[in-house]
Amino acid sequence: MSSYDEPSPQELHALAILWNEGPSTVGFVHELMNIDGSDRTYTTALAVMRNLEKKRLAVRNTQGRAHVYEAKVDRESILKPRLQDLVQNSFGGSLGQAVLSLISVGVMTPEEKTAVTRVIKKHKAMAAKKKTTKKKAAKKAAKKPVATKKKVAKKKVAKKIAAKKVAKKPAKKKVAKKAAKKKVAKSPPRKR
Q1: Do 105 and 161 sit in the same domain of this protein?
Q2: Do residues 19 and 28 make contact, with C-beta atoms less than 8 angstroms apart?
Q3: How many domains does the chain have?
Q4: Are residues 130 and 153 in the same domain?
């Protein structure tokens, strides 16, 4: 379990600003939160930043009269569980479908396209390495002698015969003991 409380959507927005821009004042975070045309007040941004501090997702440092907030957790620790949940629940575990849907939502910059291409190439290389490992394992398995149906059937018959022999041996011993007792009982007493 994580050592922090989950951030709300507004808190996540503020965290994204801190991750992208680095340590920032409430005024700067307020400006960037309203860049999309929304009309959040300064006090709303201040409350969001204080909540991040209470949840131990950000730390506050004083620089003169200004309060500067800095993200205390990294982006991956917050987003990875959310993204895994999104892929699993919204796309049935299909990472490819999730990526295609994300790409269709917006426009990527050339730098982002390059970064995505690099990650896809790396992913292909890892997948190719896994395939060769699986092929090697399959070759090793092919080299081992494979038990045929006849061999398996012979082994089963041999086990049954062995089990019957084991079961007959105690019966033979019991019969032999009984015969010995009868012999002793029937024999006449010796004279001296």
Answers
A1: no
A2: no
A3: 3
A4: no
Inside any domain, residue 109 = yes
> CB count, 10 Å around CB of 73?
19
Instruction: For residues 47 and 66, state if they share a domain.
Output: yes
In a domain, 165, yes or no: yes
CATH at 62: 1.10.10.10
Pairwise CA distance, residues 29 & 2, whole Å: 25
| Token reading at 45 | 């941004």
Q: What is the pTM of this model?
A: 0.57
**Backbone torsions φ then ψ of 163, nearest 5 degrees:** -65, -40
pLDDT per residue over 64-121, tens digit each?
A: 888 999 999 999 999 999 999 999 999 999 988 988 888 888 888 899 889 988 988 8
- Cα(119)–Cα(99) distance, integer angstroms: 12
177 part of a folded domain: yes
- What would the two tokens of residue 174 be? 């019991």
Q: Are 14 and 60 part of one and the same domain?
A: yes
Q: What is the mean pLDDT of the chain?
A: 81
